[in-house]
């Protein structure tokens, strides 16, 4: 395959790739659909700086002008942030037509993993992954992020799974799909806004080096697919559980009443929660993404050793 036909690198990401420097992929749906403007742009730029401070090179990924862009300029990030939900949310199934139609697209966890693998990037930092929605037993609403984790060899550093999802069901599916779930420095799998979810961390890792060794072992053995690196939000940034749970209940009820489904449901719930909590959820969200970017940089560096 002619990579250049579909993929373009920013100067920073391209030179990092040529010089064998550690790269960290960053998604763009979190910018367009995950946070309001201008906090989204400010956060995306700050997260890139956290990766740089950690000794790695950031590559924010999006679909622009008919190409998968690995690494974005400030102006491109600002543009995506202003477009917000006007940008197309691009998961695996959306990628081909987004390229053909030259649609401005923001990549989800699944979409970003595909792009990162094409670009030779092994580590990716985000906030939270998609998963099985509550009621997925009947609705079949299970994010394509999970099947992507099963097939695409990129480690995704996240703060666990939001309680808008069915966390237990999501963990069961990850097990079925053979996706390693490594929890960093904690005995409980994290629930995004909170350090704990009530679900035991089946595998705890205490150093980036240990995580890098596990990833290398997986890929050396030819076990294709990604891994979830679950990184609990620092305690000082945890959100008040009652505030969050009430907001989630309200958002879910509202979504059901309005009949919001499909790719619109996750952005709808995130926006509603941010609104109902008066921005408190957003503060936690921003803090945990930075925390994930720092861990991702450390893992990317350890993988190069
Ligand atoms: N969860 C969050 N914040 C997000 C998303 C999920 O806490 O921004 C975004 C990610 O891009 C994720 C996508 O890949 O939503 C999942 O959407 P869906 O459930 O439609 O697959
Ligand atoms: Mn879905």
Ligand roster? pseudouridine-5'-monophosphate, manganese (II) ion
Mean pLDDT, as a whole number?
97
Give the second-level CATH assignment, the architecture. 3-Layer(aba) Sandwich
Major sheet details: 11 strands, mixed
Distance linking N and C termini: 29 Å
- Along the chain, the helix and strand elements come as HEHEHHEEHEHEHEHHEHEEHEHHH
**Would you identify the CATH H-level superfamily?**
Indigoidine synthase domain
Could you state the oligomeric state of the chains shown?
A: single chain
CATH top level? Alpha Beta
* CATH topology title: Indigoidine synthase fold
What is the number of helical segments per DSSP (H or I, 4+ residues)? 14
Strand content: 5-15%
Q: Please bin the fraction of helical residues.
A: 40-55%
Topology:
Blueprint: H1 3-6, E1 7-9, H2 11-18, E2 23-26, H3 29-32, H4 39-53, E3 57-64, E4 67-70, H5 74-83, E5 88-90, H6 95-101, E6 105-107, H7 109-119, E7 123-125, H8 136-139, H9 144-151, E8 155-158, H10 167-176, E9 181-184, E10 204-205, H11 208-220, E11 227-230, H12 241-258, H13 265-276, H14 280-304
Parallel strand pairs: 1-4, 2-3, 2-7, 5-6, 7-8, 8-11, 9-10, 9-11
Antiparallel strand pairs: 3-4, 3-6
Helix pairs in contact: 4-5, 4-14, 7-9, 11-14, 12-13
């Amino acid at each position: 395959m002619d990579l250049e036909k579909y993929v373009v690198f920013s100067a920073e990401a391209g030179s990092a790739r040529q010089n064998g420097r550690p790269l960290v992929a960053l998604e763009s749906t979190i910018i367009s659909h995950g946070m309001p403007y201008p906090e989204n742009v400010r956060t995306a730029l700050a997260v890139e700086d956290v990766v740089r401070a950690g000794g790695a090179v950031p590559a924010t990924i999006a679909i622009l002008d008919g190409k998968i862009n690995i690494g974005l300029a400030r102006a491109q990030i600002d543009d995506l942030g202003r477009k917000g939900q006007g940008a197309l949310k691009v998961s695996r199934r959306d990628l081909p037509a987004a390229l053909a139609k030259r649609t401005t697209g923001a990549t989800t966890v699944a979409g970003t993993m595909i792009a990162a693998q094409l670009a030779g990037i092994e580590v990716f930092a985000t906030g939270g992954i998609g998963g099985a929605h509550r009621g997925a037993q009947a609705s079949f609403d299970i994010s394509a992020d999970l099947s992507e984790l099963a097939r695409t060899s990129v480690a995704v550093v996240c703060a666990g799974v939001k309680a808008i999802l069915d966390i237990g069901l999501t963990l069961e599916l990850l097990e079925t799909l053979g996706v390693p779930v490594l929890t960093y420095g904690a005995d409980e799998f994290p629930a995004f806004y909170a350090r704990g979810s009530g679900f035991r961390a089946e595998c705890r890792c205490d150093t980036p080096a240990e995580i890098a060794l596990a990833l290398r072992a997986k890929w050396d053995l030819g076990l294709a697919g990604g891994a979830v690196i679950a990184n609990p939000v620092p305690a000082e940034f945890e959100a008040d559980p009652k505030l969050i749970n009430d907001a989630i209940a309200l958002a879910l009820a509202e979504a059901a009443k309005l009949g919001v489904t499909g790719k619109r449901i996750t952005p709808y719930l995130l926006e509603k929660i941010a609104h109902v909590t008066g921005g408190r959820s957003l503060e936690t969200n921003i803090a945990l993404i930075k925390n994930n970017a720092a861990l991702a940089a450390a893992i990317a560096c350890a993988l190069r050793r």
